Amino acid sequence: MRSIAKLMKDWQFTGPNGVTTAVELPHTWNARDGQDGGNDYWRGCCTYCTRFAAPVYDPAQQQVWLQFEGVNASAAVLLNGQQLCTHDGGYSTFRAEVTELLQAENQLTVRVDNSVNDRIYPQKADFTFYGGIYRDVSLLVVNKNHIALGHFGDTGVKITPALQENSADIQVETLVEGSGTVTVELLDAEGRTVAKGEGENTSLHLDAPHLWSGIKDPYLYTCVVRLLQDGQPVDEVTTRVGLRSFSVDAKKGFFLNGRPYPLHGVSRHQDRKGLGNAITREMHDEDMALIRELGANTVRLAHYQHDQYFYDLCDQYGMVVWAEIPYISEHLPNGRENTISQMKELIHQNYNHPSIVCWGVSNEITISTKDKADMLDNHRVLNELCHKMDPTRLTTLACYAMCGPFNPVAHITDLVSWNLYLGWYVPGLFLNDLWMNFFHLVYPNRPLGFSEYGAEGMPNLHSAHPRRGDHTEEYQAKYHEYMLKCFDRHPWLWATHVWNMFDFAADARDQGGEPGMNHKGLVTFDRKTKKDSFYLYKAWWSEENFVHICSKRFTDRTEKEIEVKVYSNQNSVALYADGKKLAEQTGEHIFRFRVPLHGKVELKAVAGDCIDTASFCSVATPNPSYKLVKTKSKSANWV
C-alpha cells in the first residue's frame, strides 16, 4: 500500500537578491512586496533546494513519486542534478517518478519562475501573482503496480453518477499503471458497504440513494478502489462521492435535484495578509467557517484552481462551486496551449467533486485583447474540450462590464455571468436593474448571472453621508443593500457571487483606500474584522439568529441626532438607549432608528434572544484619526 512523506522543512531558498536563507514550506517570496502597492513586486526566477534521505522501499517491487500541489508559476525540478520535469501553471498538482534517480542521500532543486511572459496565464489581472512553492510537496511510495499517478495530476479514479427516479448508477473508471485486478466498494456515511464492483470500468447500482442536497444535507458516500495482486491489495484510493443532479433554466434559475435552488454566494481569493498564497489548512477551515456563517450556498473559486482541501470542504458543507482557470484579462496568442493544459488539469483533478457544477473558461478576457478572432477560437476550443472531457457539467465565463450583451464571446458557453460594478465604478445603482432587464428581454433563453459585483469598504473609513467612491464602510453597505433587493426583483438569475468574500492583494492598485489592496471584501484581509456588509448578507441568507448594530466603529459624531441602522434576520428589533426602550420595529433585514445624541449614548439592540451593543458620542469635531474626504455634497465628509 502507498505511503506519503511530506517534504516541508529544511529548504534553502535563494531569492531575488541572491542571498540564500532557510525556509519552510509553504513559502512565497512576494508575501510583503506583493501587498504594498506600486505594481513593483519582484517577478523572476528563484531557487529552492533541500536534501532528504531515500525513503524505505523495495526497488524491485515499488516506485517512488514526487508530488507538488502548487508551484507558481513555472517549475523546473531537478533531482541529484538531473532534470525530472517542468510544469507551467501555478495552481495545479503535478508529479514525477524518481525511483531510478534516488540515492541514499538526495538533493532536490526546484527553480520557480513567476516572470512576465506571453505564454503562461495569468499575466494581467487585478490580483498578485505570488511566486513560490506555496502548497505541499510529498514523496509517495507505491507498488510498481498502482492506480495511476502520472495522469494530469489526478487520482487515477474517475467517478460519474447518473440519477434515475429512485436509483443511481455510478460509473467508476480506474486507470492502472502496471497490472492487477481492480475492486470497487461504495460505503455510506456510516461506513456500511452499499455496493460492490470489479474491473477497471465498472458500474455500481444503488436503490433509494441519499442525495447530496446542498448546504442543508451535503450527504457523501465513500468509494474505495483497490488494486489487487494475487488476491492481495497493493494500492488503494479513497474518494468521497456525492449523488446529485442539477440544471439551469433561463427563466427560473438554478435547480438542484429537480427542485429550485437559488444560488447566492461569494467569490474567494485564497491569499492572506503577510502570507500571500502560502496558507495552512487551518486557514482554509477559517475561510469556510466564515462563508458558512454568512449563509452562502455557492462559491466562485476565482480565478484559478484552488487547493484540493478547499474543494473537499465545499463537498463536505454543500457549497455549489464554479471552478475556473486563470485565462483572464488578456488573450495571449502564445498562451493557447497553456489554457488547454490548465483546463485539462482542472477537470481531471476535480472531476469527482460533487460541489462543482460548472467549469469557468475565462474571466474579463475582452479587457485587453488585440487578436479577437484567435481569442474567440481559443474559447470555442476550451468549451468543446470541457464538454468532451465532462459531458455532465456546464460551461460558463465571466464578462467584463464593457463587454456588451451582443459580444460573441458572451454566447459561446452554456451559461454566462457578468462582472458589473454599476453604482461603484460608474454612478447609478438603478442601472443594474436596467441592465438585467435589457439582457433578459433580448436573450430570454440565455441563462444570466452576476459573477462579480461590489464596492470598496474599509472599517476605518466612515461617513454620515456616504457617497460612491469614498471607500467607507457605510457606502459599501448601502451599495449591497440595493443589490440584494435588486436580485430579489430578478429571481431568474442563475447565480450571484459577491466580489469578494475577503479583501485581497492587488499590488497594481494605488488609488483609493490602501495601496496594493482590493477592499471589496465582506471580511478584512486578515479575517479579523467582519464589515457591516457581512452582517447584511447574514441577515438575508443565514438561519442563525442574530442582530447587528451598524457603524459601531464610527463612534464620534457631530450631529445632534443620528440614524442607527440594525441588521437582523429576526422580524422584530427593539432598540434601547442607556437602558430605556427607544423604539421597536417589525420588518425584514434592515431596521432604522433615529437616536438623539447628547454626550455619550449606550445602545442595545434586541431581536428575540439576540443582543448587540454599541456606543456613540457627540463631539464638537470629528475624531482626529478620521480622514477628511471631499464629496459632491455641499460640506465635506469626515471619514
TrEMBL record:
User: Where does the record place the Glycoside hydrolase family 2 immunoglobulin-like beta-sandwich domain?
Assistant: 157-244
Instruction: Identify the Pfam families for this entry.
Output: Glyco_hydro_2, Glyco_hydro_2_C, Glyco_hydro_2_N2
The answer, when asked if Hydrolase is one of the entry's keywords, is: yes
**Record GO terms (molecular function):** hydrolase activity
Keywords in alphabetical order: Glycosidase, Hydrolase
Per UniProt, residues of the Glycoside hydrolase family 2 catalytic domain are 251-541
Q: Where is the Beta-mannosidase-like galactose-binding domain?
A: 47-148
Coiled-coil portions: none
Q: Any keyword Hydrolase?
A: yes
Q: Which family does it belong to?
A: Belongs to the glycosyl hydrolase 2 family.
- What name is this protein filed under? Glycoside hydrolase family 2 TIM barrel-domain containing protein
What organism is listed for this UniProt entry? Faecalibacterium wellingii
